[in-house]
From TrEMBL:
Family label: Belongs to the polypeptide deformylase family.
Name the record gives this protein: Peptide deformylase
Catalytic residues of the enzyme: 137
UniProt-annotated binding residues for Fe cation: 94, 136, 140
UniProt-listed SUPFAM superfamilies: Peptide deformylase
Length: 171
């Protein structure tokens, strides 16, 4: 497994809509394994392929707490089938927007259809942190960032900060 470099805001790749995965094969499962390794190293609880520069509809999640056995989950071509009217608020962060956190309101429960790492069609009903994480990562596949769910003023401040930092590194 290989730890991949993360794409960081303001990289325009983060705004790209990811293409559907055409087939589940050894190359794709290797990519999923690399993504998990990258996510664990960061450390994070979710990662979309676009965050390592691969615009494919693939994401990985592991909500195991520190000290617990890892519980990696792979979602290929995930799509939200339904979402509840009830809402929940979580403080979200993002590996592509390091050290920035904000409260985001999203549907409290969702139902997601996807392919697992074996290419089998699955459906999951999610609530709590899993629902939030799935929505956050599926947003990535659609070129949407969690900062798009906060006020315009806060979002502009974050983008400005990361744009300035990126220019500083380019010098």
């Amino acid at each position: 497994m290989t730890i991949k470099p993360l794409i960081i805001l303001p990289d325009p790749l983060l705004r790209q809509v990811s293409a559907p995965v055409e087939r589940v094969d050894a190359e794709l499962t290797q990519l999923a394994d690399d993504m998990l390794e990258t996510m664990y190293d960061a450390p994070g609880i979710g990662l979309a392929a676009i965050q390592i520069g691969v615009p494919r509809r693939l994401l990985v999640i592991d909500l195991a707490k520190e000290g617990e056995e890892k519980q990696p989950q792979v979602f290929i071509n995930p799509q939200i089938l339904s979402s509840s009217d009830a809402r929940s608020v979580y403080e979200e962060g993002c590996l592509s927007i390091p050290d920035y956190y904000a409260e985001v309101e999203r549907p409290a429960e969702i139902e997601v259809q996807y392919l697992d790492r074996d290419g089998k069609d699955k459906t999951v009903k999610a609530d709590g942190l899993l629902a939030t994480c799935l929505q956050h990562e599926i947003d990535h596949l659609n070129g949407v960032l969690f900062i798009d769910h906060i006020s315009r003023l806060k979002r502009e401040m974050v983008v400005k900060k990361f744009t300035k930092a990126a220019k500083g590194k380019a010098v």
